């Protein structure tokens, strides 16, 4: 397919504009995807406002966006499992396939990964993208391309649940009710966890957690999470805690509410990167502490959970912006963190 496409680019801090670029031609092992929805992630907002995350520094013009869903427009010569017209969710990280981490199956740790919207790799706030076919997962008829765009954050939630060893009959708590906190809660429920308590300080987000299936809500501005969880569990505590907030207080409270032998999964990044943690208590309880970096081998599981009705991704979305309105989309997403739970860009007008 030849022609031009519109691309939304970050030209400076807090500034979006549009450029015209050639529609990319897919390689032999790639497919060309006409993007229909792209999620607006917290990392996109962070780059937009601050220009960097740690050592990853934006050099404008830069294309944000790494949560894509769309329809295959063209296939490369070697692609057999996809055809034009197939709806797909795109896993955004292309790895080397050769390093020790890739060979061990832990490809999310590949040091050479090229990940959408992680500098210097452009993202997908654009009308088309050519992407490795093996990283494009066909969606069932019952799963929309809007849901396909949200498979990416859901994959983080499933990886967190997997890291924690989530299974039927457990009781869990999730700190933080932003997008990742909510998909973590839904992933835990999909894995069979009996009760998941959601902990946050923002009423709007807690309301969304209740809507999506949390067994109980704890506003830590109003109630002590430690005492509340003890009451809810009859003094036993939780088997598993996922912290998506990155707050030091949450990590400390998590150690308190976990039962002996429980697991703490750290997902959220704190502002400083440093956390004071009650290690002696964790050792006395023999807690297992796991961490999460993106995900691996979970897109099929996440797609199946949505297709089977175990996860309500459409219910996660609070705001949809037109691709022609990206300046407003980014500004509102940055200013409305307390109210916008999950925003997406609709790429086709």
The main β sheet shows up as: 7 strands, mixed
Q: Work out the count of structural domains.
A: 2
Helix segment tally: 11
Gyration radius, to the nearest Å?
20 Å
- Do you know the CATH topology of the largest domain? Quinone Oxidoreductase, Chain A, domain 1
Low-confidence stretches: none
The shape is: globular
Question: What CATH first level of the largest domain would be assigned?
Answer: Alpha Beta
Total E-strand runs: 19
Write down the secondary-structure element order: EEEHEEEEEHEEEHHEHEHEHEHEHEHEHE
Report how far apart the termini are. Answer: 20 Å
- Strand percent estimate: 25-35%
Polypeptide structure, described:
Helix content is 28%, strand content 28%. With 349 residues, it is α/β, with parallel strands linked by helices. It folds into 2 domains: 4-150 and 317-346, Medium-chain alcohol dehydrogenases, catalytic domain (Quinone Oxidoreductase, Chain A, domain 1, Alpha-Beta Complex); 157-291, Rossmann fold. Strands 3, 6, 7, 10, 11, 18 and 19 form a 7-stranded mixed sheet that branches. Strands 14-13-12-15-16-17 form a 6-stranded parallel sheet, sandwiched between helices. Strands 1-2 form a two-stranded antiparallel ribbon. Helix 4 (151-163) packs across helix 5, helix 4 crosses helix 10 and helix 7 (225-232) packs parallel to helix 8. The two termini are 20 Å apart.
In short:
This protein has eleven helices and 19 strands. The protein has about 350 residues and is an alpha/beta fold.
Defining key terms:
349 residues, alpha/beta, Quinone Oxidoreductase, Chain A, domain 1, Rossmann fold, 2 domains, six-stranded parallel beta sheet, 11 helices, 19 strands, 28% strand
């Amino acid at each position: 397919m030849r022609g031009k496409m519109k691309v939304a680019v970050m030209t400076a801090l807090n500034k979006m504009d549009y450029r015209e670029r050639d529609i990319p031609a897919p390689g032999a092992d790639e497919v060309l995807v006409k993007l229909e929805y792209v999620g607006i992630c917290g990392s996109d907002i962070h780059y937009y406002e601050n220009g960097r995350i740690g050592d990853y520094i934006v050099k404008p013009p830069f294309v944000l966006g790494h949560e894509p869903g769309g329809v295959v427009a063209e296939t490369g010569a070697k692609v057999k499992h996809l055809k034009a017209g197939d709806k797909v969710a795109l896993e955004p990280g292309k790895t080397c396939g050769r390093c020790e981490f890739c060979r061990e199956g832990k490809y999310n740790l590949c040091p050479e990964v090229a990940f959408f919207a992680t500098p210097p790799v452009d993202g997908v706030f654009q009308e088309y993208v050519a992407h490795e076919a093996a990283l494009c997962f066909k969606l069932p008829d019952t799963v929309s391309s809007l849901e396909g765009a949200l498979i990416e954050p859901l994959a983080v939630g499933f990886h967190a649940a997997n890291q924690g060893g989530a299974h039927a009959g457990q009781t869990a708590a999730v700190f933080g009710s932003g997008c990742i906190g909510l998909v973590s809660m839904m992933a835990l429920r999909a894995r069979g966890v009996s009760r998941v308590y959601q902990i946050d300080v923002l009423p709007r987000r807690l309301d969304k957690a209740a809507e999506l299936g949390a067994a109980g809500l704890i506003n830590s501005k109003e109630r002590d999470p430690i005492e509340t969880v003890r009451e809810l569990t009859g003094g036993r505590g939780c088997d598993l805690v996922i912290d998506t907030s990155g707050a030091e207080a949450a990590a400390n409270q998590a150690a308190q509410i976990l039962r002996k032998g429980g697991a703490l999964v750290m997902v959220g990044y704190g502002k400083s990167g440093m956390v004071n943690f009650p290690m002696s208590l964790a050792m006395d309880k023999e807690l297992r502490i796991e961490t999460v970096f993106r995900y691996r081998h979970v897109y099929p599981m996440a797609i199946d959970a949505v297709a089977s009705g175990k996860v309500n991704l459409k219910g996660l979305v609070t705001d949809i912006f037109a691709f022609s309105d990206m300046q407003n989309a980014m500004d509102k997403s940055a200013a409305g963190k307390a109210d916008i739970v999950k925003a997406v860009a609709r790429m086709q007008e």
